[in-house]
Amino acid sequence: MKKLLILTTGGTIASVKTPHGLIPALTSEELLSYLPEIGSDFKLTTKAVCNLDSTDITPEHWLLLARAIKEEYENYDGFVICHGTDTLAYTAAALSYLIQHSKKPIVLTGAQKPIGSEITDAKSNLRDSILYAADPDSRGVQIVFDGKVILGTRAKKTKTLSYAAFSSINFPFLATIQDGRIIRYLPPGKEKKQTVFYDKLNPKVFLLKLTPGISPLLLADIFRFYDCVIIESFGVGGIPDSLEKELFSQLSRYAPEEKVLVMTTQVTYEGSNVGTYEVGRRLRESFNILEAKDMTLEAVLTKMMWIMAEDGLSWDDIYSRFYSRINSDTLY
Ligand code: ASP
């Protein structure tokens, strides 16, 4: 019988109605008690890591989750993490960098409706996740939600209400799960490398979303306080006139490894390419910058937190780590 560890963190899946709104309140045992039939097919152990609305999940919680899995890694065949949907894609991306080349499945799931509601997606999401985590062909960090399996580095919450809350960005779904049957679209492949756990993140990564006519007023402070700035630009990417002078002046003040600039796009699909237009190419020709290309924002942000956690890296180290493919986060 497969042994799985179910880690709970809160979220809607474990929430109950109160006069003040939904609050995560169920214990991990109570959560699992809604699937009484599953206990006879798998040996399940539960552990609560926290009990939070995922709005309050921070990089510290990602480290706690990675540590909890590391400590129990040899004792279980797979892991299921129950999590709020709002920041679930960030946690999945973060765990993809904190636990690399996992030969065992680490599956994240959640729900749009509490497990105690009469009409809910929670039971099928949890059941599918357990099934997928117990399958001998499953490995690595993935999300199981609404019958779809999505790579941990490719997920984005794209719907606030529907059961199909997550999309797989610039990458196909790995599998669907229907009536307890896993239908794989991509062959699982063997993981030949040694599993590596990391235990540090640098949270000083800032996301600057551009809006037309944006003021450069805060740029100096942003560069002072953060080690990495991700600019979410328009389309394939460019820097507006309103920002260019001050941005170039800030970048000239620091070495490229001291303050790393990453360009990405606000457009969900198909990625960035800063070199296409003059408004972007000038930046790329003048400074060392990184480009997200087909990576999701969630992956870029957490990858930079993982990279920048190590002291003393040269620009070349940062560059090669950023562009090395981890959990299929980029196809470039
Ligand atoms: N606010 C909730 C959370 O992310 C939403 C959910 O779980 O669906 O914890």
What features would you describe in this structure?
With 332 residues, this protein is α/β, with parallel strands linked by helices. The chain has helices at residues 28-32, 59-72, 88-98, 122-134, 219-225, 241-253, 278-286, 297-307, 315-323, and strands spanning 3-10, 15-16, 23-24, 43-52, 78-82, 99-100, 105-109, 140-145, 148-151, 155-157, 166-168, 175-178, 181-184, 196-197, 205-209, 228-233, 260-265, 290-291. The strands form five sheets. The protein has an eight-stranded mixed sheet, sandwiched between helices. A four-stranded parallel sheet has the order 15-16-17-18, covered by helices on one side. Helix 2 (59-72) crosses helix 3 and helix 3 runs parallel beside helix 8. Aspartic acid (ASP) is lined by residues 11-12, 53-55, 84-86, 110, 112.
What can be said about this structure in brief?
The chain is of the alpha/beta class and 332 residues long. It has helices at 28-32, 59-72, 88-98, 122-134, 219-225, 241-253, 278-286, 297-307, 315-323, and strands at 3-10, 15-16, 23-24, 43-52, 78-82, 99-100, 105-109, 140-145, 148-151, 155-157, 166-168, 175-178, 181-184, 196-197, 205-209, 228-233, 260-265, 290-291. It binds aspartic acid.
